[in-house]
Design brief:
The chain is an alpha+beta fold. The chain is 13% helix and 27% strand. The strands form 2 sheets. A 5-stranded mixed β-sheet has the order 1-3-10-4-7. The protein has a 5-stranded antiparallel β-sheet with strand order 2-9-8-5-6.
Protein backbone atom coordinates (compact mmCIF):
# COMPACT_ATOMS: atom_id res chain seq x y z
CA UNK A 1 0.00 0.00 0.00
CA UNK A 2 2.78 2.46 0.79
CA UNK A 3 4.48 1.69 -2.45
CA UNK A 4 1.30 2.19 -4.31
CA UNK A 5 0.75 5.47 -2.54
CA UNK A 6 4.20 6.59 -3.45
CA UNK A 7 3.69 5.67 -7.01
CA UNK A 8 0.50 7.61 -7.09
CA UNK A 9 2.13 10.68 -5.64
CA UNK A 10 5.03 10.42 -8.00
CA UNK A 11 2.72 10.15 -10.89
CA UNK A 12 0.90 13.26 -9.81
CA UNK A 13 4.16 15.18 -9.43
CA UNK A 14 5.27 14.14 -12.86
CA UNK A 15 1.97 15.13 -14.25
CA UNK A 16 2.17 18.51 -12.63
CA UNK A 17 5.70 19.01 -13.82
CA UNK A 18 4.65 18.15 -17.30
CA UNK A 19 1.81 20.60 -17.14
CA UNK A 20 4.19 23.39 -16.16
CA UNK A 21 6.56 22.79 -19.04
CA UNK A 22 5.61 25.04 -21.95
CA UNK A 23 4.54 23.11 -24.93
CA UNK A 24 7.11 22.62 -27.63
CA UNK A 25 6.22 24.91 -30.48
CA UNK A 26 5.15 23.17 -33.59
CA UNK A 27 7.47 23.95 -36.52
CA UNK A 28 5.57 25.46 -39.29
CA UNK A 29 7.62 25.44 -42.46
CA UNK A 30 7.78 28.62 -44.49
CA UNK A 31 5.73 28.37 -47.61
CA UNK A 32 7.80 27.31 -50.52
CA UNK A 33 7.96 29.96 -53.17
CA UNK A 34 5.87 28.88 -56.05
CA UNK A 35 7.93 29.31 -59.21
CA UNK A 36 6.31 31.41 -61.91
CA UNK A 37 4.42 29.30 -64.31
CA UNK A 38 6.44 28.08 -67.20
CA UNK A 39 5.07 29.12 -70.56
CA UNK A 40 4.03 25.87 -71.93
CA UNK A 41 3.85 26.19 -75.71
CA UNK A 42 0.51 25.43 -77.06
CA UNK A 43 0.52 22.29 -79.03
CA UNK A 44 0.91 22.94 -82.73
CA UNK A 45 -2.21 21.93 -84.48
CA UNK A 46 -1.39 18.88 -86.43
CA UNK A 47 -3.43 18.94 -89.61
CA UNK A 48 -5.73 16.10 -89.64
CA UNK A 49 -5.23 14.08 -92.73
CA UNK A 50 -8.64 14.18 -94.28
CA UNK A 51 -8.94 11.34 -96.68
CA UNK A 52 -9.52 12.67 -100.17
CA UNK A 53 -13.02 12.59 -101.33
CA UNK A 54 -13.34 9.66 -103.60
CA UNK A 55 -13.82 10.81 -107.16
CA UNK A 56 -16.78 8.94 -108.47
CA UNK A 57 -15.89 6.69 -111.33
CA UNK A 58 -17.57 7.94 -114.48
CA UNK A 59 -20.33 5.68 -115.54
CA UNK A 60 -19.68 4.59 -119.07
CA UNK A 61 -22.77 3.67 -120.90
CA UNK A 62 -22.40 1.41 -123.86
CA UNK A 63 -23.19 3.37 -126.97
CA UNK A 64 -26.09 2.13 -128.93
CA UNK A 65 -24.85 0.31 -132.01
CA UNK A 66 -24.77 2.61 -135.00
CA UNK A 67 -26.42 1.08 -137.95
CA UNK A 68 -24.46 1.96 -141.04
CA UNK A 69 -26.73 3.39 -143.62
CA UNK A 70 -25.74 2.18 -147.03
CA UNK A 71 -26.87 4.55 -149.67
CA UNK A 72 -28.32 2.61 -152.55
CA UNK A 73 -26.23 2.93 -155.65
CA UNK A 74 -28.35 4.61 -158.24
CA UNK A 75 -28.99 2.30 -161.09
CA UNK A 76 -27.75 3.57 -164.37
CA UNK A 77 -30.77 4.17 -166.48
CA UNK A 78 -29.94 3.28 -170.03
CA UNK A 79 -32.07 4.25 -172.93
CA UNK A 80 -34.18 1.54 -174.44
CA UNK A 81 -32.16 -0.27 -177.08
CA UNK A 82 -33.58 0.20 -180.52
CA UNK A 83 -34.41 -3.16 -182.06
CA UNK A 84 -32.10 -4.07 -184.90
CA UNK A 85 -33.67 -4.21 -188.32
CA UNK A 86 -31.86 -6.92 -190.25
CA UNK A 87 -32.43 -7.92 -193.84
CA UNK A 88 -32.61 -11.76 -193.76
CA UNK A 89 -30.87 -11.93 -197.13
CA UNK A 90 -27.70 -10.82 -195.37
CA UNK A 91 -27.63 -14.20 -193.66
CA UNK A 92 -27.80 -15.91 -197.06
CA UNK A 93 -24.88 -13.77 -198.21
CA UNK A 94 -22.81 -14.81 -195.18
CA UNK A 95 -22.65 -11.27 -193.74
CA UNK A 96 -22.20 -11.07 -189.96
CA UNK A 97 -21.88 -8.51 -187.14
CA UNK A 98 -18.88 -8.54 -184.82
CA UNK A 99 -19.69 -7.20 -181.34
CA UNK A 100 -17.98 -4.10 -179.97
CA UNK A 101 -15.52 -4.57 -177.13
CA UNK A 102 -17.34 -2.47 -174.54
CA UNK A 103 -18.30 -2.69 -170.86
CA UNK A 104 -21.82 -2.16 -169.47
CA UNK A 105 -22.62 1.52 -169.06
CA UNK A 106 -20.26 2.62 -171.84
CA UNK A 107 -21.30 4.15 -175.16
CA UNK A 108 -20.57 2.42 -178.43
CA UNK A 109 -21.67 2.34 -182.05
CA UNK A 110 -24.38 -0.23 -182.65
CA UNK A 111 -25.80 -1.37 -185.96
CA UNK A 112 -29.53 -0.69 -185.74
CA UNK A 113 -30.40 -1.24 -189.38
CA UNK A 114 -28.74 -3.29 -192.13
CA UNK A 115 -30.15 -4.01 -195.56
CA UNK A 116 -29.01 -5.34 -198.92
CA UNK A 117 -30.00 -4.33 -202.43
CA UNK A 118 -29.80 -6.89 -205.17
CA UNK A 119 -28.80 -6.00 -208.73
CA UNK A 120 -32.24 -4.70 -209.66
CA UNK A 121 -32.65 -2.64 -206.45
CA UNK A 122 -29.17 -1.18 -206.81
CA UNK A 123 -29.92 0.16 -210.27
CA UNK A 124 -26.31 -0.12 -211.40
CA UNK A 125 -24.78 1.14 -208.13
CA UNK A 126 -22.28 -0.94 -206.16
CA UNK A 127 -21.83 0.93 -202.89
CA UNK A 128 -21.71 0.62 -199.14
CA UNK A 129 -23.96 3.32 -197.66
CA UNK A 130 -23.63 4.32 -194.02
CA UNK A 131 -25.74 6.56 -191.77
CA UNK A 132 -24.59 7.52 -188.23
CA UNK A 133 -27.10 8.69 -185.59
CA UNK A 134 -26.78 10.07 -182.08
CA UNK A 135 -28.70 8.66 -179.11
CA UNK A 136 -31.74 10.71 -180.06
CA UNK A 137 -31.80 9.37 -183.60
CA UNK A 138 -30.39 12.50 -185.24
CA UNK A 139 -27.82 12.40 -188.00
CA UNK A 140 -24.23 13.09 -186.96
CA UNK A 141 -22.30 15.10 -189.53
CA UNK A 142 -18.52 14.86 -189.74
CA UNK A 143 -18.30 11.44 -188.09
CA UNK A 144 -15.44 9.28 -189.47
CA UNK A 145 -16.43 5.91 -190.93
CA UNK A 146 -13.89 3.27 -191.98
CA UNK A 147 -14.16 0.57 -194.62
CA UNK A 148 -11.27 -1.89 -194.45
CA UNK A 149 -10.19 -5.02 -196.29
CA UNK A 150 -7.23 -7.40 -196.41
CA UNK A 151 -4.37 -4.93 -196.74
CA UNK A 152 -6.14 -1.61 -197.11
CA UNK A 153 -8.71 0.75 -195.66
CA UNK A 154 -10.55 3.96 -196.38
CA UNK A 155 -11.87 6.47 -193.85
CA UNK A 156 -14.28 9.27 -194.75
CA UNK A 157 -16.59 11.61 -192.83
CA UNK A 158 -20.35 11.63 -192.86
CA UNK A 159 -21.90 14.52 -194.78
CA UNK A 160 -25.20 16.33 -194.47
CA UNK A 161 -26.71 14.98 -197.66
CA UNK A 162 -30.32 15.39 -198.66
CA UNK A 163 -32.58 12.37 -197.97
CA UNK A 164 -32.85 9.66 -199.04
CA UNK A 165 -29.09 9.70 -199.54
CA UNK A 166 -27.01 8.26 -196.73
CA UNK A 167 -24.39 10.47 -195.08
CA UNK A 168 -21.44 8.30 -196.21
CA UNK A 169 -20.82 6.02 -199.18
CA UNK A 170 -17.99 3.87 -200.45
CA UNK A 171 -17.85 2.38 -203.95
CA UNK A 172 -17.06 -1.36 -204.03
CA UNK A 173 -14.92 -3.04 -206.67
CA UNK A 174 -14.33 -6.45 -205.12
CA UNK A 175 -16.80 -9.32 -204.93
CA UNK A 176 -17.37 -11.91 -202.21
CA UNK A 177 -16.62 -11.12 -198.54
CA UNK A 178 -14.06 -8.41 -199.24
CA UNK A 179 -15.16 -5.48 -197.03
CA UNK A 180 -15.75 -4.71 -193.38
CA UNK A 181 -17.31 -1.54 -191.95
CA UNK A 182 -17.02 0.29 -188.59
CA UNK A 183 -17.46 3.78 -187.10
CA UNK A 184 -14.56 5.60 -185.42
CA UNK A 185 -14.41 7.45 -182.11
CA UNK A 186 -16.04 4.81 -179.89
CA UNK A 187 -16.00 1.03 -179.71
CA UNK A 188 -17.97 -0.08 -182.74
CA UNK A 189 -19.78 -3.11 -184.00
CA UNK A 190 -18.35 -4.23 -187.32
CA UNK A 191 -20.27 -5.39 -190.34
CA UNK A 192 -18.17 -8.15 -191.90
CA UNK A 193 -18.33 -9.81 -195.32
CA UNK A 194 -19.71 -7.12 -197.62
CA UNK A 195 -18.89 -7.23 -201.34
CA UNK A 196 -20.36 -7.36 -204.81
CA UNK A 197 -22.13 -10.48 -206.03
CA UNK A 198 -25.55 -12.04 -205.64
CA UNK A 199 -26.76 -14.74 -203.28
CA UNK A 200 -26.38 -17.32 -206.02
CA UNK A 201 -23.14 -15.89 -207.46
CA UNK A 202 -21.37 -14.51 -204.43
CA UNK A 203 -17.97 -14.14 -206.08
CA UNK A 204 -19.18 -12.43 -209.24
CA UNK A 205 -18.85 -8.71 -209.82
CA UNK A 206 -22.59 -8.18 -209.87
CA UNK A 207 -23.56 -4.66 -208.82
CA UNK A 208 -25.21 -4.88 -205.46
CA UNK A 209 -25.24 -2.54 -202.44
CA UNK A 210 -25.28 -2.53 -198.62
CA UNK A 211 -27.08 0.02 -196.45
CA UNK A 212 -26.02 0.27 -192.80
CA UNK A 213 -27.24 2.57 -190.01
CA UNK A 214 -25.21 2.99 -186.82
CA UNK A 215 -26.49 4.62 -183.65
CA UNK A 216 -24.67 5.71 -180.52
CA UNK A 217 -25.91 3.41 -177.76
CA UNK A 218 -25.17 2.78 -174.08
CA UNK A 219 -24.29 -0.83 -173.38
Amino acid sequence: YEVAAMDSDAAQEVAMADSQVPPTPTYTPFPTATPPPTNTPLPTATPTQVPPTATPEPIVYAAAPVQEVVEPVPEVQTAAVRPRSWDPRLNQLGVTVEDANVQPGQPYWRIVDAAWWDEQESGGKHHIYVEVLDEGGNRIVGQPVTVFWGDGNYTGNTEDKAPPDYAFNFQMYAAGYAYNVKVEGLPSETLKGAGMGSIEKRDYGIHTSFLITYQKTIK
